[in-house]
Amino acid sequence: MSHEKDLTRRDVVKAAGAATVVAAARKLEGAPAIQKVRAANNQVQYGMIGTGSRGSYLLKHLKSIDSGRCVALCDIQQENLDHGVQTIGNNPKTFKDYRELLVQKDVDAVFVTVPLFVHFPVTRDALMAGKHVFCEKCLVFKAEEVHALRALAHPLRLRLLEELTMRGPLTATEAAERVGESPSSCSFHLRTLAKYGFIEEAAGGTGRQRPWRVVTTGNRWATTRDTPAAEWAAGEALSAVVRERDQRLLDEHLAHRDQLDDVWLRSAFNSNFGGWLTPAELDELGERLTELWQPYLARLTRQTDIPAEARLVHMFAYAFPRADYYDEAPPVAEGETPDDGRDGDPDA
Q1: pLDDT tens across 206-229, in order?
Q2: Is 66 helix (H, G, I), strand (E, B) or coil?
Q3: DSSP 28-43
Q4: Residues 290-331 pLDDT 10s
Q5: 200 phi and psi, to 5 degrees?
Q6: What are the structural domains of the chain?
Q7: What predicted TM-score, i.e. pTM, was given to this entire model?
Q8: Cα gap 26→21, rounded to integer Å
Q9: How far is CA 65 from each of CA 51, 188, 217, rounded to the nearest angstrom?
């Protein structure tokens, strides 16, 4: 496939068929859960991520606003965190990891007052958590990060991707019934997903009765140095969501596997391998794994083919050159010379 299509035409769900594209909350690792924002008693309950000089300055002014209440603070420096608590004066929860703050259900909105170079990841995760966000200028550190934020600016888009993946083509009206939103809202977000290449029109219908489908289910996701920067940023952001989702699903399985019968316990597996491969061999391995999954991925759109005893199975695979071996050449047996790929005269 052309690298120009690698990100925009390859769905965020990977070779497992992807039961969900939504990253859910994990306290210490992973992206936060997606949730609707509701302020309790008409008072916005907010958190502050970054309680250094700028964050504490804002807290000093926010403490006198009756329509808002600080319920959580986060900073990696204990001194800053203590100063923030002293400044706001109402005993908020405190965190060193901002992701812990974002999973708090009583936090309606967050202020992002961290160093500029981390504005993007913190703002991205806050949006993914369904929070309202006030971010100090500038919103991003690099221009291409704007495009990633635009692609991720509303959690409803991920819910729509999940529905389209699991149920096949849906119109905006049908999708609205599934996710509990209005048809007009779903129509807008479906068009946005189409703009970024994650979905496309299916045959039949017009307007809100026009069906949409995911472009590709369970394909491999790859980028190269030639991938446009905007697509790279959007893809990396969503890839991070997928990785975190994969780990969450594994954690949930391990926590509840005692509910499975012996047949499923024997069938479920985990494996890891290591070996010296060329880029071509690694690429072939990935393609063959995808080919193995194709018959099962097809069941997502042909549900009449699903056996009665089947369960929804998730599989994720990552294969990559190990960073700690980047500068190390393959081992050479004693008495042999390295094979540099040249044929013929060894002196050539």
Answers
A1: 766 789 988 765 445 556 666 655
A2: coil
A3: SSSPPPP-----BTTB
A4: 889 888 877 776 777 889 999 989 888 889 999 999 998 898
A5: -150, 165
A6: 1-22+155-227+260-332 (1.10.10.10), 44-146 (3.40.50.720)
A7: 0.49
A8: 15
A9: 18, 35, 48
